[in-house]
Amino acid sequence: MALILALLSTALLLFFFTSSTANALSLNHYDKTCPEVESIVAKTVEKATKKDKTIPATLLRMHFHDCFIRSGGPTWNVPKGRKDGRISKATETIKLLPSPAFNISQLKQSFSLRGLSTDDIVALLGGHTLGFAHCSSFQNRIRKFNATHDIDPTMHPSFAASLRNVCPINNKNKYAGVKMDPSSTTFDNTHYKLILQGKTLFASDQALLSNPKAKNLVYKFASSKQSFYKAFVNSMIKMSSLNGGQEIRKDCRVVN
């Protein structure tokens, strides 16, 4: 479940970071043409995910929403009617994603290009409470960090030591890694608590503490799950309203 959530999270971000604000979406896009779309999508996408098939944009968003609910997260009305993009493979678009090594300036620049604010950054990164991270995404923090420190000084020493055990030098297991947090199948505010403890995996998450506004939000969300849920829903709706697709696929698995 954790791995599926991580893959879906990456996929949704891929749609987001290759989108623009063109073509307005609506909550009742399928009310007349396909009123049972919600239940149909849940069943169809689950089958497609198991078979590693390409999933059209609107279906992916709706299934992503369902995964949040199933893992205890908040619910929201998903804007529908998004056209499909011409690129939908992670290997082809991964370079457009914000890097887990980004500092706060790089994060702000990347998100602002899509009309998202610092508030959105902090809220959306809370999604890292779900899923799994491979060693490659945080390896640079636990060895040869810079000329002065072997380990990132913002990382808690005992946490770094545990990661070094999981990800040894010359690691040959490409699947090696750890859960994003101890409750990686439950959508909660644990991730923010870990950031404050120096026990988060990505440098980009820890970088939130280097910005006064972002830092205040981390403290706020760490102390109030409801505040986090409200902010997350607002940012997800804002993000999912971006729509830069070019076509409606005749075959869900391939571009026209």
From TrEMBL:
It catalyses: 2 a phenolic donor + H2O2 = 2 a phenolic radical donor + 2 H2O. It is an enzyme of class 1 (oxidoreductase). Residues 57-256 form the Plant heme peroxidase family profile domain. InterPro entries: Haem_peroxidase (IPR002016), Haem_peroxidase_sf (IPR010255), Peroxidase_pln (IPR000823), Peroxidases_heam-ligand_BS (IPR019793), Secretory_peroxidase (IPR033905). Ca(2+) binds at T129, D181, D188. Belongs to the peroxidase family. Ascorbate peroxidase subfamily. This is peroxidase. It comes from Corchorus capsularis (Jute).
